[in-house]
Design a protein that fits this description.
single chain; mainly alpha; 2 helices; 91% helix; 0% strand; elongated
Length: 67
Amino acid sequence: MKTDNSKKLKIKELISVLTIVIGILSMLMKIYEDSEPGAIPLLLILLGAGGYLITRGQIRKQHLSSQ
């Protein structure tokens, strides 16, 4: 049960990192094309970072409770 939960958290962490990377790449393309970053890439970066921080907190909480 605990390993299933830790796998889910690792997947959530990976999705958050991928969201950040997609946001950064999208922002770079947008800056190259329009000379401005755009709102959607910034939103992707913020949502990815928020999800990452929340997931890291859940992983830390699970780790501390298992000790």
